[in-house]
Amino acid sequence: MSQTLSSGCDLSNHSTPGRIEVIAGPMFSGKSEELIRRLKGAQIAKRRVLCFKSNLDARYHRTAIASHNSQTLDAQTVANVEGLKSVLFPLIDGIEVIGIDEAQFFDPSLVPLSLELMQLGKRIVIAGLDTTFSGDPFPPIPDLMAVADEVVKLSAVCMQCGAPAVHTQRLGSSQSLVLVGAAGLYEARCRACFRPYVDENASEQLELPAVVS
Ligand code: ADP
Ligand code: MG
Ligand code: ZN
Description:
With 213 residues, this protein is an alpha/beta fold. The chain is 21% helix and 23% strand. It is built from five helices and twelve strands. The protein has a six-stranded parallel β-sheet, with helices on both faces. Strands 3-4 form a two-stranded antiparallel ribbon. Bound molecules: adenosine-5'-diphosphate, magnesium ion (MG) and zinc ion (ZN).
């Protein structure tokens, strides 16, 4: 199918080199918003876009990625990297831009897959949490940041003091790494206000400040 912009510029034979873009930061920092903005821009440029998210993230929508300020973009929900491949590979020749939200829910094989897709000439835009609620690097985002062409690290607003927030504070005592939720379960915190969980016993004793809603 011929693709033209309103200028008449023919885009169908326009080959671009592959590229990996990573959008990282804590919860509420605008990662999904930025991912949606970039993918919508690609659609305006008549690029064929396919977006994925983990089925662990069922907040707001099952068939779309969503930001906390209610922007959405259609997405395929997949269980893991294998599931992503089985949806993507049959369509691969027709897809130019691949978006992945909540990439911290995927296993480390996302890194070689991203490199493979880049070598095929695809643009891959990946959003994910760069640190856990303990403040540690959250695989596979750090490795993706290392191999990326472009990394954007966003900060949120600390819900305790209003300073730039680089951390995701878990409220409550669950230690599970994958506990999906939004406001109420987590909040953005600056370095000074962040209280990382160290171990299970410590977390039970942790005195958390009141939640600001
Ligand atoms: P992420 O994907 O990084 O979790 P989203 O793109 O879903 O972030 O949401 C960003 C939006 O969240 C902001 O534009 C703002 O409307 C809202 N928001 C809620 N709490 C905060 C906060 N503490 N800091 C910044 N933005 C916040
Ligand atoms: Mg998000
Ligand atoms: Zn603070």
